[in-house]
Design goal:
GO molecular function, one term: lipid-A-disaccharide synthase activity
Catalytic activity: a lipid X + a UDP-2-N,3-O-bis[(3R)-3-hydroxyacyl]-alpha-D-glucosamine = a lipid A disaccharide + UDP + H(+)
GO biological process, one term: lipid A biosynthetic process
Helix content: 40-55%
Strand order of the largest sheet: 3-2-1-4-5-6-7
Shape: globular
Radius of gyration: 21 Å
Strand content: 15-25%
Function: Condensation of UDP-2,3-diacylglucosamine and 2,3-diacylglucosamine-1-phosphate to form lipid A disaccharide, a precursor of lipid A, a phosphorylated glycolipid that anchors the lipopolysaccharide to the outer membrane of the cell.
Low-confidence stretches: none
CATH architecture of the largest domain: 3-Layer(aba) Sandwich
Protein name: Lipid-A-disaccharide synthase
CATH superfamily of the largest domain: Glycogen Phosphorylase B
Distance between the termini: 10 Å
CATH topology of the largest domain: Rossmann fold
Number of domains: 2
Mean pLDDT: 91
Structural class: alpha/beta
Number of strands: 13
Largest sheet: 7 strands, parallel
């Protein structure tokens, strides 16, 4: 079978790589062409375009880069026509993927969506396009099955969350070795996950690093995104208690005492590593004003959305300031608070459906094609 996979972000690259491994196991003759990143490239197949050339954050940035985005859509369509896949597998990244799906469906190409668009968060009217343009939908959050099937009468497959596999199947990190190899000292680690795009990294690090001197008994370690190089982060490394590592986020989380995390997939990753966290978000004034008028969710972090309660503290926009960060990080370092939070994390993992998401999805895709 010929598979065309489109992943437009770092998280999609991770899940795409695991799905590709499962597809190769299920289909020995699999021919895979994809938009993704380094992780997918290591598995095999042919990389068409790297996600670092696709990631535009916020309403304003999308408008500014509209010409580039439209050109990427043209390139993608031409490449699909030339490849003639048996199925296109879309991974998250809805702004781009739903445009391609509409075009592909009209041409009779099978369209499968793995990690469904979060229309339950905003743009719920996209359900019409989802029903029209996708043959199969594979969802990874437990509440999504009810959302699509009960509320919108569209059958979906709940496959469990692929992060569980990604975390459980990785080799154990030895803390002493990790610190030595990355030139860290012996102090306990506060991990800082500021995001993956330059715009959000710059905004988030400026506030996250403002409290470093209040926790001198800890070392703060920035998790560098694979899509950014070291030179971009240099401007933030002015405090001797702030360290930097690149492309080793999971190793960092496996040895961290606590974490400050920008809202996104990283909030769930941090929880699955059982690291107490504060969730932060601070966007541009214009983007925030627009977002708060169209997003009606109670929470912004996946941890709280899945549990339907405030398990982790969320500091959003004006609340994301040095005073509040200091208060909330101090709580995370208290034994009683940590114990209660870690118990909630165990319940969260149980709710996500266990291991095997990638394998289940690959089997379902192949069964549908056959």
């Amino acid at each position: 079978m010929k598979y065309y996979i489109i992943a437009g972000e770092a998280s999609g690259d991770l899940h795409g790589s695991n799905l590709m491994k499962a597809l190769y196991q299920e289909d020995a003759s699999a021919d895979i062409r994809f938009w993704g990143g380094d992780l997918m490239q290591k598995v095999g197949g042919t990389l068409v375009k790297h996600y670092r050339d696709l990631a535009f954050m916020g309403f304003a940035e999308v408008v500014m880069n509209l010409k580039t985005i439209l050109n990427n859509i043209k390139i993608c369509k031409r490449d699909i026509e030339k490849f003639k896949p048996d199925v296109i597998i879309f991974i998250d990244y809805p702004g781009f993927n739903m445009r391609i799906a509409q075009w592909a469906k009209k041409r009779g190409i099978k369209t499968h969506y793995y990690i469904a668009p979060q229309i339950w968060a905003w743009k719920e009217n996209r359900i019409k396009a989802v029903k029209r343009d996708f043959d199969k939908l594979f969802v990874i959050l437990p509440f999504e099955k009810e959302f699509f099937e009960v509320k919108h009468h569209f059958p979906v497959d709940f496959v469990g969350h692929p992060l569980i596999d990604a975390i459980h199947n990785r080799p154990k990190t030895d803390e002493a070795t990790f610190k030595k190899e990355n030139q860290l000292d012996e102090k306990p680690i506060i991990a800082i996950l500021p995001g993956s795009r330059k715009q959000e990294i710059a905004k988030m690090l400026s506030v996250m690093l403002s409290i470093v001197d209040d926790f001198s008994e800890y070392q703060f370690v920035i998790a560098g995104a694979p899509s950014q190089d070291y030179h971009f982060y240099e401007q933030f490394l002015t405090n001797k208690n702030v360290k930097f590592i690149s492309n080793k986020t999971y190793d960092l989380l496996s040895v961290a005492t606590a974490a400050l995390v920008t809202s996104g997939t990283a909030t769930l990753e941090t929880a699955l590593f059982k690291v107490p966290e504060v969730v932060c978000y601070k966007g541009s004034w214009a983007s925030y004003q627009i977002a708060k008028r169209i997003i009606t969710l109670k929470y912004i972090s996946l941890v709280n959305l899945i549990m339907d309660e405030e398990v982790v503290t969320e500091l959003i926009q004006d609340k994301c300031n040095p005073k509040n960060l200091k208060t909330e990080l101090s709580k995370l370092l208290e034994t009683k608070y940590r114990k209660a939070l870690l118990e909630k994390y165990e319940a969260l993992e149980a709710k996500l459906g266990g291991e095997g998401a990638s394998a289940k999805t690959a089997k379902l895709i192949l069964n549908e094609l056959r």
